[in-house]
Specification:
443 residues, D-Maltodextrin-Binding Protein, domain 2, 7-stranded mixed sheet, 3-stranded mixed sheet, 15 strands, globular, Raffinose/stachyose/melibiose transport system substrate-binding protein, TAT_signal, signal
Length: 443
């Protein structure tokens, strides 16, 4: 979906912050570490840390550098939440890396409005084979006012309801097909001394996933589209209030593990609760499959991990095939990079993120690349059932809605995350949530 009404975005006030210091960075794959642009002949990129995805990202850089000795890429890695703060600060301070990694959407729109990333439309027109490699639905979040400012890359990552099969067998229950089924499971697991749902509430964006699906299942994707387009009082729509109320009903029923608002996603503590049999379910991105496989002992290889799309809401307007999450991740080129660095960056887009080694790496850790024509590679993988299910879930969804904190502007997203945390802490009512968010519509 193309960005709309991007002129309403207020971005510069958020990013004009103090510069980063070199001491905050840790570099890999050679070269010196430091904020922003490295020396001539080298382009820089900042990536997310965390295994096993970090190794695949390193592979992309290392294989590119081996075949491009005269135009290297230097990578620096940050934890998820730290990265989001540091990259906005760096862009506003004129210290951004050559290649800006992100999730597209509202943040990208802000960069584009401020002239901080290059318009790549004509370059992709000159390289139609590269553009044709990427699944069509991924381009929307990289596009602003009909112009391409970022290339979709890495993986498609819908949000999935994971569940612990042995715990369901222990209580004699089946995975929930409807929201009513899910609510009925809460007392069953609590009475058995098992937390119904693991949630890393301190990270906030993990809590947001529950609202994203409830909004979709109750009101359909049009419900958030009204928010996205800045329609007056969009958050006060009766369907929105119903979804907000349902979220609090789940909290009040004891649906989430005790102390969920102190659990942190960056430490994978929420995943550990699932695979150590402390919690029966977890709503999370497909990227967690790889870390649960590597950290959870025999939980994944032994077949104890179950997964499904979010349950339907009886009488709801959203199609049960709909999903939410990240259609892809995105790379933009910093407008203040040198011409030489920009050329290296474009070569990296061509040869680095789309290489066979990188595609095989993503599939190898249980994730699904955002590229066409990979069905045979998925079927031949170590996890064929999982990766094929993710691929088909993404491609067959009637709506694949981008994560809200990426679709909205950074300012509106921060307000959203703050209010979601308060909603799940039961410190505000659905009506107060709606009023607070209506006040920042269009920002």
């Amino acid at each position: 979906m193309d960005r709309k009404n991007t002129s309403r975005r207020s971005f510069l006030g958020l990013v004009l912050a103090a510069p980063l210091t070199a001491g905050t960075l840790t570099a890999c794959s050679g070269g010196t570490a430091g904020p922003g642009q490295p020396s001539a002949g080298t382009a820089s990129i900042w990536y997310l840390s965390g295994q096993p995805a970090e190794d695949v990202r390193k592979t992309a850089v290392e294989t590119f550098n081996e075949s491009h000795p005269d135009g290297r890429v230097e990578a620096t890695f940050f934890a998820n939440d730290d990265y989001k703060t540091k990259i906005r600060t760096a862009v506003g301070a004129g210290q951004a890396p050559t290649l800006i990694w992100g999730w597209g959407g509202g943040t990208l729109a802000g960069y584009a409005e401020a002239g901080q990333v290059d318009d790549l439309t004509s370059w992709f027109e000159e390289n139609p084979d590269l553009k044709a490699k990427v699944i069509d639905s991924a381009w929307g979040a990289g596009t602003v006012d009909g112009k391409i400012y970022a290339m979709p890359m890495q993986t498609m990552a819908p949000i999935v309801l994971f569940y612990n099969k042995p715990l369901f067998e222990q209580v004699g229950a089946q995975p929930p097909k409807t929201w009513d089924d899910l609510m009925a499971l809460v007392p069953v697991f609590n009475e058995a001394g098992i937390a119904p749902i693991s949630l890393a509430g301190q990270s906030r964006w993990t809590t947001m996933m529950w609202l994203e699906f409830l909004f979709d299942r109750v009101g359909g994707p049009e419900l958030f589209t009204a928010v996205y387009e800045g329609d007056e009082d969009a958050w006060s729509n009766p369907d929105a209030l119903e979804a907000l109320t349902m979220a609090q009903d789940l909290v009040r029923a004891g649906g989430f593990i005790e102390g969920f608002d102190s659990v942190v996603a960056d430490q994978n503590a929420d995943q550990a609760l699932l695979y150590t049999n402390k919690a029966a379910m977890m709503l999370h991105g497909t990227w967690t499959y790889g870390s649960m496989k590597s950290d959870g002992g025999e939980f994944v290889p032994g077949g104890d991990l179950g997964y499904m799309n979010f349950p339907a809401v009886t009488g709801g307007k959203g199609d049960p095939s709909n999903t939410v999450g990240n259609p892809a991740q995105y790379l933009s080129i910093y407008s203040e990079a040198t011409d030489e660095q920009k050329e290296i960056a474009k070569q990296y887009l061509k040869d680095g993120v789309t290489s066979d080694a990188v595609i095989e790496g993503w599939i190898g850790i249980g994730e699904v690349p955002v590229f066409k024509g990979i069905e045979d590679q998925l079927a031949a993988s170590e996890n064929p059932e999982w990766v094929t299910w993710v691929y088909e879930t993404a491609l067959n969804a009637k709506s694949f809605q981008q994560s809200w904190d990426q679709a909205l502007s950074p300012a509106a997203a921060e307000e959203l995350l703050d209010n979601i945390a308060r909603l799940f802490q039961l410190s505000i009512t659905p009506e107060e949530f709606a009023a607070n968010m209506n006040a920042v519509l269009g920002q």
